[in-house]
Design a protein that fits this description.
Order of helices and strands: HHEEEEEEEEEEEEH
Strand content: 25-35%
Radius of gyration: 52 Å
Shape: rod-shaped
CATH class of the domain at 119-275: Mainly Beta
Largest sheet: 6 strands, antiparallel, barrel
CATH architecture of the domain at 119-275: Beta Barrel
Structural class: alpha+beta
CATH topology of the domain at 119-275: Thrombin, subunit H
Length: 290
């Protein structure tokens, strides 16, 4: 029995030794001769390269979209900033143009001040009668500034109206086109006296004159000063229409357009505390005197 066991052990050792010899030989053969793996590498390259290309293209596309998205966000923000800047500059330019126009209007008003006897006050128009049942405006000067009822209100182009009510800091002005308003006037060249009354629209009607035979379109009327409200010699308006009066062939219907643009008043001048005889020199008076 012991002999049989010893024989089996010896056989196992021999088999192990043979296997080691064979393994060593195979390793030696591999080292001395390299196996050609070109086909395997080519197959792996052809299989994996398209997938790698797709992944690379996808990454590049994502990177491009990502970069341009943030770039467009930046451009959009810059455009909004530039637009806001342009709007701000446009507003400032409009404001400067309005300031220049206002200065020009005020300068024209102040140029009239030197030709008027009596104290004057410049006022701003702050309101207009919205119902238009009465042609009136509201100005930002009142009794605290010397403005009181019957103070004449004028512009550089001519008369506007008269104050009919005043509080401490505001006044209501009845415009000359109001149907309840009347102005004593002279025709500038012939010196004919007349009365102009508002018709509730944009014009004045010649209500009374001692002689209208020679009156024609273009004739100019100035204040006569006889109403004790308006200084003498201020422009009132010019004739825009002369036609026969219905039912009275001897009389004419004469329409006068105010010299001042009544519908676009912004600044006006109030004549405050005029002297007893307020006179504005009119060069045509000398030529018309006998």
């Amino acid at each position: 029995m012991s002999r049989i066991v010893a024989t089996s052990k010896r056989s196992g050792y021999i088999a192990l030794a043979v296997a080691l010899v064979i393994q060593t030989g195979l390793i030696s053969i591999q080292v001395s001769r390299r196996i050609d793996t070109t086909f395997v590498r080519s197959w792996i390259l052809d299989s994996l390269a398209p997938m790698e290309k797709l992944v690379d293209q996808a990454l590049q596309g994502v990177s491009y979209v990502w970069d341009n998205y943030f770039f467009l966000i930046g451009v959009n923000k810059e455009n909004e900033h530039l637009k806001a800047l342009v709007d701000d500059l446009r507003i400032k330019l409009d404001k400067q143009q309005e300031d220049v126009a206002e200065v020009q209007r005020l300068r024209a008003l102040l140029s009239v001040r030197d030709s008027i006897a009596g104290r004057t006050v410049v006022a701003r128009v702050v309101g207009r009668d919205p119902t238009r049942s009465n042609e009136t405006i509201t100005i930002d000067k009142g009794r605290a500034h010397g403005v009181k009822p019957d103070s004449a209100v004028i512009t550089a182009d001519g008369i506007v109206g008269r104050v009919i009510h005043s509080s401490n800091f505001f006044s209501i002005v009845q415009l000359i086109v109001d149907s309840q308003s009347a102005v004593g006037v002279l025709e500038r060249s012939t010196r004919k006296q007349a009365i102009l009354r508002g018709n509730g629209g944009r014009d004045l009607d010649l209500e009374y004159t001692d002689d209208d035979t020679d009156m024609k379109e273009g004739d100019v009327f100035i204040t006569s000063g006889l109403d004790r409200i308006y200084p003498k010699g201020l422009p009132v308006g010019s004739i825009v229409s002369v036609r026969p009066r219905k039912g009275a062939a001897l009389f004419k219907t004469i329409v006068v357009r105010p010299s001042s643009d009544i519908g676009r008043l912004e600044e006006v001048m109030c004549v405050v505390d005029p002297p007893e005889t307020v006179d504005v020199f009119d060069p045509t008076e000398r030529s018309a005197a006998p």
